[in-house]
Amino acid sequence: MKISFITFLFLFLAVWCPAQQTVVTVSGRIFDESNGETLIGATAFNVPEGVGATTNEYGFYSLAIEAGDSVELTFSYVGYQPLAYSLLLTKDTTLNIGLSTGVQLEEVVVKSNSYQEQLSSTEMSVEAVTTREAKLIPVLLGESDILKAIQLKPGIPSGSEGTTGIFVRGGSNDQNLIVLDEAVVYNANHLFGFFSTFNTDAVKDLKIYKGGFPPQYGGRLSSVIDVKLKEGNNQKFSGAGGIGLIASRLTLEGPVQKGNSSFIVSGRRTYVDIFTRAVNRAKMDDEEFNPIPDYYFYDLNTKINYQLGEKDRLFLSGYFGRDVFGVNGDFFDFDFDWGNATGTARWNHVFSPRLFANTTFTYSDYQYNIQNRVTGFSFKVGSNIRDANLKTDFYFVPNNRHAIRFGANITGHQFTVGRLKAGSDDGLVSFSAGQDFDAMECGLYFSDDISLTEKLAVNGGLRLSGFGNDNTFYFGLEPRLAARYSFSDKWAAKASYARMYQYLHLVSSTGVALPTDVWYPSSARVKPQQSHQVAAGVSYILADQFLINLEGYYKTMDNQLQFVDGAQLFVNDELEDEFAVGEGEAYGAEFSIEKKQGKLTGWIGYTLALIRLKNFTTLNPSGRFAQESEGFGAFFPIYDRRHDLSVVLLYEISRRLSATATFVYGSGDLRWLAPGRFSIQDIHGASFETVVPDYRARNNYRLPPYHRLDLGLVFRFFPRWGETDLTLSVVNVYDRRNTFFIYLEPEFEEVNNGGSVIEVPRRIVARQVSLFPILPSLTWNFKF
Amino acid sequence: MFVSLRPIFLLAALILACLSACNLEQEVNIDLPEYDSRLVVECYLEPGQAFSLLLSRSRPYFEPFPPLNQEFLNNILVDSAEVAIFHDGKTYSLRNQLAFNPFTRKVFNYYSSEVVPFDTASAFELSIQLPDGQALFAATRILPAVGIDSLVVQFEETDTLARVLTYFTDDPARKNYYRRMFHRSSLDSAAVQDFSVDDRILEGTAAFGTGYNYIVGDTVISTLFHIDQAYYEFLESLQDAVSANGNPFAQPSPIISNIEGTTDAIGIFTGISYDRKAIILRR
Predict the structure, then answer these.
(1) Mean pLDDT for the stretch of residues A714-731
(2) What CATH number is attached to the domain comprising B164?
């Protein structure tokens, strides 16, 4: 056995170690020369050998090269002018490269490279949107939103009126791991999801994995949304901001020590409340006037990074955001706030030209608080989840055929679910409720991205995850596998498999997501969610202009939670009794064609998908759960959308003028409507209910299709101090009345009944409520 | 409870109110799934009151309502069933007879002149034999009433408006469910408050309150029903069903009923016990 192990180790090292003494490694960072921002996914390419490496998420690359006296290296990144070097290489060399935007002398090369990189990567089911695209895409009330922009990509249904969650490949809204600088964000929405918590001015990069999850990610079933904040300009002090219809933004950044360290501070706040307060003050003496409630939200992002030396870099970043809602009257005060806070401390260390490490400590907090005070009585309710997470990731490039990652993380979770405290000032009445949980989650992973041949590459990995809550422990073995086969430099086929475990559950109703939805840990009765996903697809570069992707996927999910009929959701210390547990199955196909360069850019994405939930049983034996035909068959969740089409076009008419258009079309979402009705006369003193809806099978009605066209124009100006623009957005150009919800109500008529006039029901009518008419907006943006 | 627990809906209402100004609501024609009508049972056992039961049927949602005449009743009521209630070895047969109680203003189509005995120890069992051979069953008990400790009137110091607090004591030793009603003037007026709660957050003395909506001279009636779990779940599911129609934030609920049998039916068979206090407001 010992011999076998040593033999194995020998072979293992033989594969990883450089084959010849003459091989040296070039490594370093690739960054934007103008501001020092590291570039993620930039390419270092050894022209004679035809091999390359891309920068990881920290901007680090490592490329093994045969030593020589005139090694030709090219460094490139989409939208940047490539740099070519001819080097004398006799030993391992650190080469930090600054790229600049500007006139692209070799546009074709850069363009081709960007597609080639996607084609040659083993990663699949990945979508990204740049902040430039996000700022151009027309959006609601002019508030550019990178999270909304990513929802225009295939496989991420978008646009449904009032459906604010992100439902990736049939996954529910809680199955998205959203990380901001590696700290988990539990609720990425402001105002019921009309706006996301990410201020586009402060965001550097957003990437979403829909499948084929790399092993460094875990803890959610359906997607990973990785958001990186800018590092701050380390060359000069600069700023950006904007004034819109409902909010203003300001971002300031600059060097702390030029070239070595920088900071960025970015804030955003809505100001509708300033006007509503003025109206309330003006109408203070009007007894008929009901004061308009206060509402606003704000975000604050900060980040500092410091270059400790050639090999060490330190980052500190934080996010704090709140939605605040309040109603104050003569006899009562009502306050409701919710939001996230995250903090990240990150240390990058280059052990050697081939070994890079990132160690991160993150803190996340999501909470909501409701305070209600009526004379003599007070009432407070809230929930929160707090995480402290320590993780370390190693990135090891033994040679150009292997890119190895391994690491570990441990997270402490603290949950407070439905904390309630209420009582009278005199102490006569007092009651409280709520549950507290402490849980621990950990992960250990290893992966190797192997180029087996020039045509075939495989990324194999394994993640071991664990979770403990109140003497209940779960372990998950999560194999991940992805493979790419290149038929030519224009054709590639890819396939992947991922097993995922999710130990947290979001307790939310079938209706619109609310900030009061609470996170609930796995326990002895509530088992972790699990999924298997396989995906396969082909990519093709058409005429060096377009990247075409076609992917299919199949996913199964276990231990999916739904609420039982008549569930008591609020302040319930026995919440688990309200759960029903079942399975899910999703499959579909996604098609996209994308153009990244030239005056006209954009993409068309189409998804054909199906998601089914089935075999639900209640955790409480006396619980009830209505399913299709009462026969314990399958039913569809509200976000089951058969067809989803997005068209995004960005046209650079001139340096001063850009035009944008987005069109979305989706099959209608599902709703749970009552097919029957009955009357209840009730007991003495109660009202006669003429029409009581009789709900049967869940989600039994499909809404009309959703479609919408948005247009935008960006007028740019170039004053001496910087750049400004006026962004005109028109959302829902042809004023389509998309359905938010439908309700059914009786129409009454008055009849004379023995001398007295009474109202009797005559017929039932269905009414549709929409959220958005045509909505133009104008935003002024600036940067200096 | 003394505070409304629908905070989020305030914000939603604000948004919807703003948007409703843009005429974003319109009548639409939709096709609902097929619906099979089912039986609806209402039978409340109030000690000292006659046995009575209403047996009706549900209808497809969009079915037009017939004119208010015999056709209306035929459309809704189910006749020719044999209804009996068994209790403590005795059988109470309810005749198929349309009866109107002028005091409660309620209509029943099965009725017995015998009154419900006050007995919290033994169960009452309902049997309904339908003309088509199908049968329905249910069982319940009458609970002891939970007394109202006091009604306290509080005037706002700087105003003439008052609120009324209803104090009672929850027995922590057992699981209790309550229905609270509050009326102004008389029980025949629409209830100002009518909701049900369980005692999971109550600890000993509890209070139901009102808003500052009352003035000197007002008559107010506060009623505390002590209800069983089946009735509580029925009322909650009824509330969820009604409120989810038109509220996109709410989760609908099918009706949770304690009627069982060989055919599809919903409804409630329950005992009614309560304490009620009425006062005229004085400063």
Answers:
(1) 92
(2) 2.60.40
